[in-house]
Amino acid sequence: MGQKVQGTEDLYGSYMRAWQHMQDVARELFGAYGFDMIETPAIEQVDTFVHGIGESTDVVRKEMFRVVSGALFGDLLEAGTEAGLKPRQRMAMRPEGTAGVVRAAVENNLVPQGAAPAKLWYAEAMFRGERPQKGRLRQFHQVGVEWLGASDPASDAECIIMLMEFFKRLGFDPSKLHLYINSMGDGECRPAYRDKVRAFILDHRDEMCEDCLERAEINPLRAFDCKNPHCHEVMAGAPLVNDHLCGDCAEHYAAVKRYLDEAGVSYTEDPTLVRGLDYYTRTVFEVEVEGAGVGAIGGGGRYDGLMELEGGKPTPGIGFAVGFERIALALASQGVELATPEPACVYVAGTGAEERDAVFSATLALRQAGVRTEADYQGRSLKSQFKQADKLHATLCVVLGPDEVAAGIATIRDMDTHEQVQVPMDKLAEEIVSRLR
Ligand code: AMP
């Protein structure tokens, strides 16, 4: 028997309805904010992620699922190196959504200079070669937004306000949600700050883990995120970014906080919040749920340099992504069901083989009238068909026996009250539609 790959899940039944519900909520809310949906390919050239996410990030260095065609696989094994592959032959499954959307925006010129911003949202599977555990999968699903071409701090605030509203509409108790925000500075002030953090790590090299020493060289800010408790303790004394923001970044950050205050969105400033991907500038944010034990359920930030890294003109941008599976776990921990109820239907029951054609016609007419309709295809007894109708949450049953068929009528049975009425066959769909209303 085949088995699914470790860290992947099959989505069906209530889990699938939960994922669809999340997309419906996103479509309505993000639509109200002017966002349109986009879907980019699940595979991109590795360069798209290297440019966008950053060569030094864990995601690019360790977690990307690399893709190579079957035809090239043997050659690659034989060569023992990918050096001979052309850039277009080096592909990866997308580990996150932003780099692909920004690549698409550049390639399709979605933000012509001087034109209105592009506001895009997506709901897609992401792939990361992580060690699977609760809330950490190798294939998971994200809903995310990217707002390209907006630099105003009001857009940062609107993004965050929309994210918090999204969580509320999914059923979270807002008092259990914790929003953490920070500013990571920009090209003006971050390099000097990075150097300070690097120097700090090197000053404490005897107390830090090997990984952090490596981080000091390539991406020192990541040391704030080290899982090693000892490094964590040491980093508590490291210089904080707030004290090193340039005037413009400080002003931007203050404006974002002012807008959030005005909107009544509460937040905690966390000067050690450094998101894992290299492309962030200025505002970054993350949301956790009290007591859920699944880590962050969503996060995002501003990425003003990313369009350029993907080969476009300098264009500011901001976005966020939330993880479906973690949200489902976090909601379950609060006793909230994300899935919508199983949809109701109308069941058409026939008493025997002779009524098969009449069942077929009635089913066809109901479906053409837009009614979710089920029937028996296994020649079950009438009693089993009623049982099946209950299982399928039928609110009404249409019963067709020899008498009904001979008289050209149908019996409609209310599955709750068991009350029955008879209607002419050619009025069946009309009657059912009006009863369902
Ligand atoms: P990130 O792109 O790492 O900021 O992730 C954004 C959101 O996606 C997180 O807050 C999680 O909800 C979710 N997420 C990230 N990685 C995983 C994973 N391996 N498995 C499940 N959900 C994930």
From TrEMBL:
The keyword Ribosomal protein does not apply. It comes from the Bacteria. PROSITE patterns: AA_TRNA_LIGASE_II. Keywords: Aminoacyl-tRNA synthetase, ATP-binding, Cytoplasm, Ligase, Nucleotide-binding, Protein biosynthesis. It holds the Pfam family tRNA-synt_His. Transmembrane segments: none annotated. GO terms for molecular function: histidine-tRNA ligase activity. Residues 1-341 form the Aminoacyl-transfer RNA synthetases class-II family profile domain. It is an enzyme of class 6 (ligase). InterPro entries: aa-tRNA-synth_II, aa-tRNA-synth_II/BPL/LPL, Anticodon-bd, Anticodon-bd_dom_sf, His-tRNA-ligase, HisRS-like_core, HisRS/HisZ, HisRS_anticodon. Homodimer. HAMAP family: His_tRNA_synth. Belongs to the class-II aminoacyl-tRNA synthetase family. This is Histidine--tRNA ligase. It comes from Paratractidigestivibacter faecalis.
